[in-house]
């Protein structure tokens, strides 16, 4: 496996405090960063931090509400009305959008 180096600049006090917590959790900073990057690569989920996390959360909630509104307005008594989640996924995967 080829490896790459990831680096970032942080305040020296922040680094010292964080390193202490990381060690208390039984990890090294390198292990923590590697695990974080692998988790993001495997799940596509970026952890939320500070206000940016709140904005992402609000965007997801708005998208969920929009999806619920679309579902609520689907015609009743049609094939769409009775489709399961898996059926809908298959339907959309088969579309050339």
UniProtKB/TrEMBL annotation:
Q: Which Gene3D superfamilies does the record cross-reference, listed alphabetically?
A: Met repressor-like (1.10.1220.10)
Which GO BP annotation is one of this protein's? regulation of DNA-templated transcription
The name under which this protein is listed is: RelB antitoxin
Q: Which InterPro entries match?
A: Arc_rbn_hlx_hlx (IPR013321), RelB/DinJ (IPR007337)
Record's Pfam families?
Answer: RelB (PF04221)
Q: Which organism is it from?
A: Bifidobacterium callitrichos
> Origin, by domain of life?
Bacteria
């Amino acid at each position: 496996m080829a490896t790459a180096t990831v680096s970032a600049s942080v305040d020296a006090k922040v680094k010292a405090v964080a390193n202490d917590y990381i060690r208390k959790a039984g990890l090294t900073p390198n292990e923590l960063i590697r695990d974080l990057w692998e988790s993001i690569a495997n799940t596509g989920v970026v952890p939320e931090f500070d206000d940016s996390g709140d904005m992402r959360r609000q965007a997801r909630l708005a998208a969920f509400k929009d999806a619920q509104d679309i579902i609520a307005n689907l015609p009743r008594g049609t094939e769409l009305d009775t489709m399961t989640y898996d059926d809908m996924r298959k339907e959309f995967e088969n579309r050339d959008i």
